[in-house]
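To: structure subgroup
Subject: Chain for Friday's discussion

All,

I'm putting the inputs and outputs inline so they're searchable in the archive.
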Amino acid sequence: MVIEYILPFVKNHGILISFFGGFITGETFIIVLAFLSANGVLPLWYVLVFCTLGMYLSDFVPFTIGKLKFWKRLIGEEVSDRARDIENTFLKYTRNNLFLTLFYTKFIYGLSIPALIYLGYKKVSYKKFALYNLGVEIIFVPIVILIGWFSGKGFTIARTIFKDIRIAIFLLIFFMIIFSLIRKWIDKRLIKLQGRLK
């Protein structure tokens, strides 16, 4: 089986895989790594430290892209006005707090990268962004890891009881669906609150 070759590779290169997992792939792969950690494939602190570091540094890429001058030419007046309306509504909810803005966008699927580009476009300083985003990642990544870790621990118990790999697959999918549903629920709540604030 392919997994017999993958697991030793993950075990031997846990630090690099954890870092690039956070830097390139994001939450889904972090959940998988935490799942493997709960089953003894790699140390939990590898996943916690290096996934957090990877995600933290990856956020600087879209943020820096947003600071490039071509965005002013790319974004027309109509798009700019619409973006400003969305921004004003969102800032009312986050009370113009950069930390809350960064934190909420982490839970709304597909919004994190555009938000980081826009924050770069709005000339938020690197120093301020680095500080607030570090706080966000220190909270957000452990939440994601806990989901994967508990699903992995659930698999360990289930494997002991049922001796069936299908239980492992079911539990991993179940926890990933729960994570997705939580993000969708937060997304809907924000949309409703935006409607009330208009």
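Points worth raising on Friday:
The CA atoms of residues 63 and 116 lie 5 Å apart.
The chain has a mean pLDDT of 75.

D.
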